[in-house]
Specification:
about 290 residues; mainly alpha; globular
C-alpha cells in the first residue's frame, strides 16, 4: 500500500500506467479527515436528485471537492471525477420519458456520466482503478445461484406490494401500446445496466481506493439511493433501495463479477417492468400473487 506521504505527492504525470487493483485503506485511516469531503460529495446527491435543488446540491458537491484538495490530492482527483458524473446526471430530469427525444437524451446523458470520468481516469491520469471484471472461465458457484434465486423470490413477493398497493407505479408513464411497452422494457434494463457501471464500477471503486469496503459501500449507496428516488422509487422506497445498493456493492466486491451483479439487477428490473405493465394495463402479465 502507498504511504500517505506518497499519496499526497502523486499526480497525473507521475501515476504509472500499471496501477493495479485499488488498495484498501488501513485501520488508522478509517476515521481520517478524508471522510468529511467524501461524505459531502455523497450527501450532495440528496438535494441534487431527491429535491431537484441544484443550487444547494452543487455547492455542497463543490465544497466536498474543495476540502479534498486540502486534505488529500489523490482523493481530490477521485472526488472530482465522481462530482463530474453527478453534475452530468443532474443536468437533466431523469424521470422516465418514452419519447424518441427523451430516450436519446436519457441515453446520451447517463452514458456520458460513466464514459467521461472513466476516460479521464484511464487515459489522462493513467489509472486502472475503474474496472469491469467478467471473471471468464469461472462458473457461478452454488452459493451465487442460491443467492440469485433467493433475492428474485423476495423481489417477486415484495415489489408488487410496493409498486401497486402504494401507487408508486404512477411515477412511470402509462404504456397502453405494444410500442410503449417495449420502450419501457429497453429503458428499464438500460438504467439497470447503467446503475452497476456508474455506482458500483466507478463510484464504489473510487471510494474503495481510500476507505475500507464497508465505508466506501455506504457512501456509494447514499448516491445510488438518491438517484433511484428521482427515477421514481419514492414513498418508502429507500427502505428497499438502500439495502439493495449496499448489497450490490458487497456482492461485486466478493464475486469480482460484473455479469453476476448485472444479472441480479436486470432480473429485478424484469420483475419491475412486468409490474408496471400490469399496473397500467390490468389483465396483462397478471402473475403477481401479492399485487
Amino acid at each position: 500500500m502507498l504511504r500517505p506521504a506518497i499519496l499526497w505527492r502523486v499526480s497525473a504525470e507521475t501515476t504509472p500506467d500499471t496501477t493495479e487493483t485499488p488498495p484498501t485503506a488501513t485501520a488508522g485511516e478509517r476515521h481520517s479527515w478524508k471522510l468529511l469531503p467524501s461524505a459531502l460529495v455523497a450527501v450532495s446527491a440528496i438535494p441534487l436528485f431527491v429535491f431537484h435543488e441544484r443550487l444547494i446540491g452543487l455547492p455542497i458537491l463543490a465544497a466536498g471537492i474543495a476540502v479534498a484538495f486540502v486534505v488529500d490530492r489523490l482523493l481530490f482527483r477521485h472526488l472530482a471525477l465522481i462530482g463530474l458524473g453527478l453534475a452530468i446526471i443532474s443536468s437533466m430530469n431523469v424521470k422516465a420519458d418514452l419519447s424518441n427525444e427523451g430516450m436519446v437524451r436519457f441515453a446520451v446523458t447517463l452514458s456520458a456520466a460513466v464514459i467521461v470520468p472513466y476516460l479521464i481516469s484511464r487515459f489522462v491520469f493513467r489509472e486502472r482503478i475503474v474496472r469491469f471484471p467478467v471473471r471468464r472461465g469461472q462458473p457461478w458457484t452454488r452459493t451465487e445461484w442460491s443467492y440469485l434465486i433467493g433475492v428474485l423470490v423476495l423481489g417477486y413477493l415484495v415489489l408488487p406490494v410496493y409498486f401497486i398497493r402504494f401507487d408508486v407505479y404512477q411515477n412511470w408513464p402509462e404504456v397502453p401500446t405494444l410500442d410503449l411497452i417495449l420502450r419501457l422494457l429497453v429503458g428499464v434494463n438500460y438504467v439497470g445496466l447503467w446503475d452497476e457501471l456508474f455506482f458500483v464500477c466507478l463510484v464504489f471503486a473510487f471510494f474503495r481506493h481510500h476507505f475500507p469496503t464497508w465505508q466506501a459501500n455506504l457512501l456509494q449507496a447514499v448516491i445510488f439511493t438518491s438517484f433511484l428516488w428521482e427515477i421514481g422509487y419514492t414513498s418508502w422506497g429507500p427502505l428497499m433501495t438502500f439495502p439493495f445498493a449496499f448489497l450490490q456493492g458487497y456482492v461485486f466486491q466478493r464475486t469480482k463479477s460484473l455479469p453476476f451483479v448485472v444479472t441480479i439487477h436486470l432480473s429485478f428490473d424484469m420483475i419491475i417492468w412486468a409490474i408496471l405493465v400490469n399496473a397500467h394495463n390490468p389483465g396483462i402479465l397478471d402473475v403477481f400473487i401479492t399485487a
